């Protein structure tokens, strides 16, 4: 399919109907997250590739009044062996951002491209950023040292990928050592209890949500986490 054909197909999805657009969000006037600055680092899921650039980032900003710095490039990896990888783009962000939180996507592209999982470096800080594990560890260290704010990662919802499941498990191992938070949609019982009918509405593909998926399914989970950790 051409890019134009894909766009036309996405427009026709029920989950991308106008009623789910971010323009219809009513701001929460009592939001305790208002004016919190959040740096989001990711790829197509953080961007909203199947929802015309509207992801949980836009929905949280619209609802809760947060101020987001959204750094996304579709198809990119955590591992630093490809152009526009996460680390390459992260280090170009201004160091003087007054961030209240840094949130990084556990990229599905590393699983799709079968990147090496690698080993935990631990306290030696000799991170092999050509591996998934080393890249995660480096991103945590750099974000903390640069923006001096809490560091969180988020996972995608479940789909058929043994390597991504290994990545989620490894992320939890790293979190135990590095004391970071995880917005774990992969293992969230409420997320996994979604009906087949709602899943069909919420997801354009097994990895990419529609506007409805971001608005009704993913965003509430992000908001619950952020309100628990940033307020």
Description:
The protein is α/β, with parallel strands linked by helices. The protein has one domain (32-230): SGNH hydrolase (Rossmann fold), CATH 3.40.50. It is 42% helix and 10% strand. It contains 10 helices and 5 strands. The chain has helices at residues 3-11, 44-47, 56-64, 86-90, 108-112, 132-147, 162-178, 189-192, 196-202, 211-230, and strands at residues 37-42, 67-72, 101-105, 151-154, 181-183. It has a 5-stranded parallel β-sheet, with helices on both faces. α7 (162-178) links the parallel β4 (151-154) and β5. It is globular, with a radius of gyration of 17 Å. The N and C termini lie far apart (45 Å). The model has no long low-confidence stretch (mean pLDDT 96).
Helix content class:
40-55%
Q: Identify the CATH architecture.
A: 3-Layer(aba) Sandwich
Structural class of the secondary elements? alpha/beta
What portion of residues belong to β-strands? 5-15%
| CATH top level label | Alpha Beta
């Amino acid at each position: 399919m051409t890019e134009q054909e894909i766009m036309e197909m996405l427009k026709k999805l029920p989950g991308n109907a106008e009623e789910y657009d971010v323009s219809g969000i009513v701001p929460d006037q009592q939001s305790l997250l208002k004016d919190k600055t959040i740096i989001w680092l990711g790829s197509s899921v953080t961007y909203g590739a199947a929802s015309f650039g509207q992801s949980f980032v836009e929905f949280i900003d619209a609802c809760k009044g947060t101020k987001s710095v959204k750094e996304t490039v579709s198809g990119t990896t955590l591992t630093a062996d490809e152009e526009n990888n996460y680390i390459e783009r992260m280090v170009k962000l201004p160091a003087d951002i007054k961030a209240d939180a840094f949130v990084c996507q556990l990229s599905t592209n590393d699983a799709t491209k079968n990147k090496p999982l690698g080993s935990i470096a631990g306290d030696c800080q000799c991170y092999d950023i050509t591996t998934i594990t080393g890249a995660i560890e480096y991103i945590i260290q750099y974000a903390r040292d640069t923006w001096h704010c809490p560091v969180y990662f988020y996972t995608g919802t479940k789909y058929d990928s043994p390597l991504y499941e290994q990545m989620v498990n490894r992320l939890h191992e790293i979190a135990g050592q590095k004391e970071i938070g995880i917005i774990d949609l992969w293992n969230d019982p409420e997320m996994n209890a979604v009906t087949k009918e709602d899943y069909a509405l919420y997801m354009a593909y097994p990895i990419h949500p529609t506007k409805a998926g971001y608005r009704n399914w993913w965003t509430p989970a992000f908001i619950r986490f952020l309100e628990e950790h940033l307020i």
